[in-house]
Every structure is written in C-alpha cells, then in structure tokens.
C-alpha cells in the first residue's frame, strides 16, 4: 500500500544584478500557502559534484511526517521503538531542543510505521495529530501540552486503515481539522487557543488529504477532500457551499486539492481515479447592492461548481501537484507529468522518480524520488529539462522536501538531511 500521508512571505535583494535568497519559513504542510510553491529566489541551479552541500545529517525514526520550519527551529514527528514523538530541532545543526511523546507507535506493514501528519506552526503554538488520532496544541518553546482531544473517544471518529494523516489548518483564530466524527461532525473548527469546538459540519468517512483555504470572488472557503467527497464549507459556521462526489478504491483520497486562481480547484487521486478541475461560480442577486459575502450569508447568493475537465491522465496517489502559470506538475502514479490546467492536456511525461514528491521554487521543480534521488528541473511545458541530480538518501522516501531560508530538508525512515541550496561558501 503506497500512501502517506505539505505562500512564502519572501523578498529578494537585487544587488549587482544578482538575486540572493534570504530567510524564509515553511510553517506547515506544503509551505505557508499550502501549495508546495516557494517564492524563494537565488537557489543553486548549477551543481558541482559536491552540490548541494550537506550541512548536517541526523538519525531520525520512522514516519512520513513533513518538516515545518519557523524562527530557526524545525518541527516534525517520528516513531522510536514503541513510542511516537513530536520533535523540535535547531535548524542550524539539527540539535534536538525538545521532544513530546504524542502516542504509542503506529505499526503498519504495507505502507510503513510511524506518524503521517505534518505539524502546523502558528506563533507560539504547534498543532498536530498522532497516527491514532490524538489532536494536540503544544507550546513551541518547550513542547508542553496546551490542550488536546482524542478524536476517536470524543467525536466518535473511526480510524482510517492507514492511520490519521490530515495536517491541521490554521485560519485566523480557528484550527480547522477533518476529524471524521459521527453524525454531522466530519469537519470541525476549534478555537486554536483553547481547543473549544466552534462548529462542526458535513457527514463522511475520514480521508487522508489535508484542507486548503481559498477566497473566490470575496468568499472565503475551506476545501476538503474527505473519504468520498470534495466539499467546500464556510469558515464562519461550517455551512456547506458545494459538494462533488469523489470515490477512490480503498477510500484513499490523499493528495491535497490545488487552487488554480482565480476560481478553479484540482482534485486528484490514484488507483485509476484520475483528476478533475472544478470551476467555482458565485451567483449574486442583481438588485442587491450588498457585498457578495453578505448576500451569501442571507441566502441571496449561491455558489455552484461545474467540471472544466476530467481525465485519468493525472493520478496523484499521495503526492500533491504544484502549479506554475497555467501548468500543473505532478505524478500520474509513478510518472512525472506536465498538464495544462485549463484543458487537462498532457504536455510531457518523464519516468525515474517512482512515487516521488515535488515542490516548486525559482522557476524550478525540486524533485525527490521514492528512493532518495534529488533532482532539479526547469518548470516549463516545453519538456522535461533536468539541470542537476544527486543521490541524497536511500531507502523509502515518501516525505515531501521542505525549502526554508536557502536550506532544503529531506528525510526517509531513518534520518534527516539539511542541504545548502544557495551555493554560498
């Protein structure tokens, strides 16, 4: 079983005609905007035999949790013997600052052992979920528990076959989580500071995909890919805006939806399901001069969706795609592809990364194969153009890379590596 369960606030200095990367952060699943895209510039694009330079390498236990970076600290999860942990490391040298035991170890012989969730960092709070469904808010300074919920016991959540994999989303003062609770409690919003339930919504079994927050024509929406449905809800009260049935074999909806501005969203999954691009359409009353949001809240406006295209050319089994311009770059099972976002037409394909992962930075795809090959390729629809590659890890590598402050962080099931992507001495 292959699953797993990723906007930079960045600026660049123009000095002597050379763009130089400066410190950025990657505080949650798929980066600050949850899209796998970095605004960091000046990354190293010409690699010598010793590039990218290894800054440090540390042992790390099993698990597929992504790596979050904020204020010079690294946060991730791993398992060791019979226990699961959240860990905080110093980004300079990988030194452990604190660890918190989050649960017993999750053993799974098909996909792999250990936690799946990527911690979300918001100021002095860290939010994460254990593989058995314990939702935590921890103090980022020392790892002490602020509040917690057992999703199975408190909400009647049924544990997915391959463990809880959803990464929590912070939206303003709310912590948004797909909890898979009983009744109309598939999705819930918590007060991020206290853990109090603000609202719950939707009825569906739990999936493996993490939610995103988007704004279309002034309407803020939380978009989920739950066990069997793509669904959009209001962050204010959980009101369902629209739903789209999306069934996948083994109920493995794992890849994160990708927003295609200004009003479209990509949904994709593996097991021969494929992909669909949906357009979100907002209809307002022509004789009402209030804002769209006000009309929506008063049931004077409606939100609908329509299929732009649907195809089996892009099957994101668990690795989410990235968008640059009008082109999507992602994995059709084990084949890397470029797909035109508006039409679904395939532009090119390339093999060699297995069930790998991808992020986008500085006009380039940063690719990590499922066996530890790191590569840099131009993000262009003209064809696959590899600039450089090197072997950085061995064994199974299903965790998406993290790029922060000119450093690339990658991990497998036994260790984590920090690489210099600036090329500076």
Question: What's the arrangement of secondary structure elements?
Answer:
Blueprint: E1 13-15, E2 18-20, E3 37-38, E4 54-59, E5 68-70, E6 73-80, E7 83-90, E8 96-104, E9 120-122, E10 125-129, E11 134-139, E12 145-150, H1 151-155, E13 169-171, E14 174-181, E15 185-191, E16 197-201, E17 212-216, E18 219-225, E19 229-233, E20 240-245, E21 258-260, E22 264-269, E23 274-283, H2 292-297, E24 302-311, E25 322-324, E26 327-332, E27 335-340, E28 346-350, E29 357-361, E30 364-368, E31 373-378, E32 385-391, E33 402-404, E34 407-411, E35 415-420
Parallel strand pairs: 3-29
Antiparallel strand pairs: 1-2, 4-35, 5-6, 6-7, 7-8, 9-10, 10-11, 11-12, 13-14, 14-15, 15-16, 17-18, 18-19, 19-20, 21-22, 22-23, 23-24, 25-26, 26-27, 27-28, 29-30, 30-31, 31-32, 33-34, 34-35
